[in-house]
Amino acid sequence: MVSSLFLIFPVISGCFTFRMTSKSAEKYFSEKNVAAELDTYSVGQRTINYVSIPNPTKPTILFFHGAPGSWSAFKQFLIDTTLVPIAGLVSVDRPGYGYSDSA
To answer: Which of 9, 19, 57, 73 has minimal Cβ neighbours within 10 Å of its Cβ?
Structure first.
């Protein structure tokens, strides 16, 4: 029983994407030649972290991760060569996740 838990844990933990540092994100997007903007906005006393691939003349697609998670759960979509030309892409850290404040 215990040995099967050691085999299952790495598989299950690989299903969750947790926060990515700004430095790692900048490197990731730079290597993919995608002009990403890492930024925050404030709502009341809460700061929300997000990443965007701007495309001001096109519709915007918003990505919201599950729990647990962070914006980086959608990093593959943010570099997708089909999506980038046809839409602005924004992936948000929900309050209390990633680098967004919980309160």
So the answer is: 57
Looking at the DSSP assignment, which residues form a beta bridge with residue 52? 37, 90
Model-level pTM?
A: 0.79
Cβ atoms of residues 77 and 54 within 8 Å = no
Rounded to an integer, what distance in angstroms lies between the CA atom of residue 36 and that of residue 33?
Answer: 9
For 53-82, the pLDDT digits (tens) are 999 999 999 999 988 899 999 999 999 999
Alpha carbon distance 40, 51 (integer Å): 8
**Maximum distance among all Cα pairs of the chain, rounded to whole angstroms:** 56
What is the H or E stretch that residue 76 is in? helix 75-78
Cα torsion through 79, 101, 40, 78, rounded to 10: 10
CA 100/CA 77 separation, integer angstroms: 21
